[in-house]
Amino acid sequence: MKTFYLTTPIYYPNARPHVGSAYTTIACDAIARYKRMCGYDVAFLTGTDEHGEKLQRAAEAAGVPPGDLDGLGKFVEKKRDLFQKLWRALGIGPFHDTTSINNHHSQIANHQSATPAPIDYRFVHTSQNPAHEKAVHWMIEQAKKYNLPYCASCDRYLEHGTRPEKCTTCGGNIEHRSAIFSKRYEGRYCIHDEMYVSEGAEPVNCPNCGRPTELISEDNYFFRLSAFQERLLELYERHEKDSSLSPFVQPDFRMNEVKSFVRGGKTLVPGSLRDISVSRRRISWGIPWPGDPEQVVYVWYDALTSYLSGIGFAGDEREPEFDKYWPADVHMIGKDIIRFHAVYWPAFLWAAGLPLPKTIFAHGWIYYEQDKMSKSKGNVVYPEPLVKAFEEFGAPGNDALRYYLLRDTPFGLDGNFSYDGLIQRYNSDLANDLGNLANRTVAMLNRYLSGTVPTVVTDPDIIKQGRFIEARAGDLRKHFAAFDLSNGLEAALAAVGSVNQWLSEYKPWELAQDPKRHKDLENVLYIAADFLNYLAPHVYPTFPHGCDQIWQQLGCEEGIEDQKLDDLKWGQLSPGTKVGEPKPIFPRLKKEKILRKLHELAEQDRDETTKEASSKVESEQKQVASSTVGDESPITNQKSPIANGQSSIVNQQSSIPNADSSKISIDDFAKVDLRVGTVLSAEPIPGATKLLKLQVDIGSDVRQVCAGIAEYYKPEDIVGMKIVLVANLAPRKLRGVESNGMIVAASVGEHGRPVLATFKEEVPNGSRLK
Ligand code: MSP
């Protein structure tokens, strides 16, 4: 049987999981179920990333004394439990906990029956896990032995892992460098992202999250990442050129972002392809460094290895599942952790001689009412009260949440969570469209045909309709195969809409009044029921509970999850099948009532959480308040000239008072802080055809800017480009997305086509234009 191994990131259990953390796990669960129904033997890994300074500090904030490793262990265990509980509550699992080698006697691995093997759900945690620790030690021992032959005269590395005596290009002497070496580290570190940001003491903010960094100065072990530049670029290119491979990073605008980061080598962003410190002396909460227990392993080396240890890898000891599932088919991650997965992880695996994952898919973030969720703002949405609120009205809360998250946000782009949006989606798509179709079909079969599925349709017109339905389901599969869950669901619901409309045209309730038209009535009801029989398994992976209910009401006896999508065809619902009672599956909800309940339960839940974690929130608040690009920056509703396509900065400044209103003084001009920057990433903004969301490195920090250039520039054209940014504009929101500056462009021609200002010569980021 073909295998499919997919992973979620392993989550930091420093806080309780919210809707944003649940997003990847829900998406992966849907993909896992879908792949299983496509005939794959699926392994699904999630877990918790329990070491590192962030966790150590969270525990201290919760009252665990520094250095109390037992206390820390208990702290993470409790938090881990919150994650496991949430996945159980969301119907994801049950999970195998993988803490030691050879204890996982998986019946799944030996599953030989005709139905596909159930999903092998695994939960890995990184602390107090002997098998994982062995795996991490093994990875590092391999890297220590891994040879990187370097020719100083050519300033390049020869084939990694070999030991040539002379340079194959110049014949010069070769220096044999190990992938791991020791060095004094002095530089800036972001605790929030557990990321090395820069070398040197100069204060900088983290380019990822914008928070202030801390100075670290200690003797560490380093990984020679700088040696891997060429090899990484070759890897990305090979995946692009070979049509039998998936792109190494998806979506493509993320791949471009990674390429430009790697191409920039050591210079693009502080801390980019520099050799990275992979051990820490000043913390004790981690896996001891092999051979030097004074230090612990860098938390990302530790965390990434969980993708191996979670499926039975413990270095030289390995369970058969490891060979069966590795390499992973997809690492599903959020956009903020691409660098670790697409740059560090391949290098760590190469240095260990292990195959690389097949693809990395980075999805966007879920914001709350267009804003970043943050405890200090009190706008974090937790799934449990939300699910409960729906259930109090007899509606399947898990389905509502899953459907909303997967349908509303194009997978790969940022999305927005709002209670209004959730109710709207539920009511319009699940209650009005699918629920209504299922309910009236089953009710009419009961009322007019004694609850029995009629004989198979032979009418050619109606058969044509069936083909159309099959085509729509084909669209769904095409989209799902590309992880495009949102468009897949859109296709499925479009088919539901067509069948509803079709029923309204054929009016079976009128046909039922005319005994001469009994055959027509049978045909129409067969089509509707058969459509549901065909559709329900296709959408089951995304909202399982309701689909299972539809399936059962149609009288289908085999488990819906055991259906093989390849074998499903239109016309398979067996005549004579007895359908069940027409119980409403997705009852329509009164907006005001459910909204009130959602807020009420969220408030109750917040009170409980706040009581538990008030000290932690306070410490987070302090951190956020001191951050320059943090969550708290004031946002005005000022209109952006660039969003309107008028991209000249002169327009922006024209209100500066002056004696001669057409002229400004040099002092006035000096107020405009123009900076050189490099575009690190560019991506579309859902629903805003003219805007691109850019991340721009301006030396001192990375700015998020919305620019009205989407009609003229493709994201991949501008990633890596040097541009000019007005750096001291007040932040504002465009289409709900925060913009922190404005890009300078000439406005050309009648339609004001923007042409971005750039430079012919190399100019460092952050240089000021005067
Ligand atoms: N521990 C690391 C991952 C190690 S993987 C070997 C980590 N943990 S995290 O808890 O901070 O984040 C886990 C995942 O949750 C990331 O992919 C992150 O992008 C995602 N999300 C956190 N908040 C999110 C939203 N609001 N929306 C969507 N995903 C979000 O990073």
Structural features, described:
The protein is α+β, with helices and mostly antiparallel strands and 770 residues long. The chain is 39% helix and 19% strand. It has 22 helices and 31 strands. It has a seven-stranded parallel sheet with strand order 3-4-2-1-18-19-11, with helices on both faces. Strands 22, 23, 24, 25, 28 and 31 form a six-stranded antiparallel sheet that branches. Helix 14 (460-481) runs antiparallel to helix 15 (485-506) and helix 15 packs antiparallel against helix 17 (518-539). The longest helix has 35 residues, at 591-625. Residues 102-112, 266-271 and 614-661 have low confidence and may be disordered. 5'-O-[(L-methionyl)-sulphamoyl]adenosine (MSP) is lined by residues 9-12, 20-21, 23-24, 49, 303-304, 333-334, 336-337, 365-366, 373.
The count of strands amounts to 31
- Integer average pLDDT: 85
Fraction in beta strands = 15-25%
Counted by DSSP, the helix tally is 22
Describe the strand arrangement of the main beta sheet, using strand numbers: 3-4-2-1-18-19-11
Structural class label: alpha+beta
Largest sheet: 7 strands, parallel
> Which hetero compounds are present in the coordinates?
5'-O-[(L-methionyl)-sulphamoyl]adenosine
Shape: globular
Report how far apart the termini are: 65 Å
